[in-house]
Amino acid sequence: MTERIAIIGGGKIGEALLAGLIQAGRHTKDLAVAEKMPRRAKEIADEYGVLVTDDVAVAVEGAQYVFLAIKPDDVESVLRKLASTDDDAESERVTVSLVAGLPIAKYENALQAGSPVVRVMPNTPMLVNEAMSAMSAGRYVGEEQLEAVKELLRSVGKVVVVPEKQMDAVTAVSGSGPAYVFLMAEAMIDAGVALGLSRAQASEMTVQTIRGAGLLLSESGLSPVDLRAAVTSPGGTTAAAIREFEANGFRHGVYQATRACAAVSAKAGLRPDVEGLMGGNVTRSDSETP
After folding, report:
1. 117-121 and 131-137 beta bridge pairing
2. Which of 116, 166, 242, 279 could form a disulfide with 162 if both were Cys (CB 3.0 to 4.6 A apart)?
3. In angstroms, rounded to a whole number, what is the distance separating the alpha carbons of residues 50 and 41?
4. Domain 5-167 CATH class label
5. Per-residue pLDDT tens for 171-220?
């Protein structure tokens, strides 16, 4: 049976998932997007040739997998829409939440009893098919369903499965992690300018250095410790720089930053930065007040 997939929310994360699925070989006729903003809906329809509608019920009709790429404020209204279609849906429709900070229980309680729910914490490199996504399965998710969702998410990057209790730690390491790298890049560029490089030169050097270091770390099979040691000669230039990093509390700062991030993530209703890449209000029907 051909798998039909619905994406609720046409923001950048929703679009990135759509593009990744198409690139991975999914047929456009088996994909649908719910997006309320007319201009955004037209952009997606024109670019990808998929069904785009402002009606959640239409988007999810016949879908085996429904991905929620919306803001937390829109979740309750979308869940009401999904619940209203449960009688017509196959009982094994899997709801996959890409919404930060909301527990699986919220979805299970709102949907038809026994509905399979998967919670996912992606990160913004999904926009270039290099996401690090962590996923947790709800009580009613079968092994085959979990594997199927994992395969769908692999179209936009790497995927790991973790217990839901680890999602705050996931947020602290990979969910918010790109911002840490961007901050490091910003500091390196400013430092290069202070040392006499042009901003363009410092930017190019920094971006390529981070890109290359990431690929080396990913593909060499060596640990970060081994790779750092390989470029740190005793008494050399790199050793001098690392000595200053450590003297200024670099490692301690990372520990403290990730702990703070996890603590905020644990507070219900607070929204990690990926929210800004989600779609807008996709739930208002024509009969509701604009």
Report:
1. antiparallel
2. 166
3. 10
4. alpha beta
5. 999 999 999 999 999 999 999 999 999 999 999 999 999 999 999 999 99
Contact between 22 and 47 under an 8 Å Cβ cutoff? The reply is: no
**Token pair for 185:** 């890049």
Cβ atoms of 156 and 20 closer than 8 Å: yes
Give bridge partners of residue 157 from the DSSP assignment.
Answer: 131
Cβ neighbours, 10 Å, residue 22 = 16
Residue 4 has a CB neighbour count (10 Å cut-off) of 19
Proportion of the chain in helix, strand, coil states, percent, rounded to 5: 55, 15, 30
The span from the CA of 204 to the CA of 207, in Å, is 5
State the architecture of 175-272 in CATH terms: Orthogonal Bundle (1.10)
